[in-house]
Please model this.
Amino acid sequence: QVQLVESGGGLVHPGGSLRLSCAASGRGFGGYTMDWFRQPPGKEREFVARINWSSTSTNYRDSVRGRFTISRDNAKNTLYLQMNNLKPEDTAVYYCSANLGAYWGPGTQVIVSS
Model:
């Protein structure tokens, strides 16, 4: 079992950047596919990005491709999401997830506003 805790959220102006982190404790992080999801205000949770265990494969939702980068450091048991050129529509609670939705963190709030 693995426990996940996100950090790095906050308030940022449009066009700004944030780097989210997801710290994992417990066993298995290095072997898990990891995802970032987000839930905008009043909307359903949606997929943002995925990375496989070896960092050889990544996938993104269309609206963030080219602006967001998912990465991981298995030695540090940490998942990252670098978010550049942020837009107001990126405002959401961001969650990391392990092993295809088996484990979830509590989320971190990102607000993009002028």
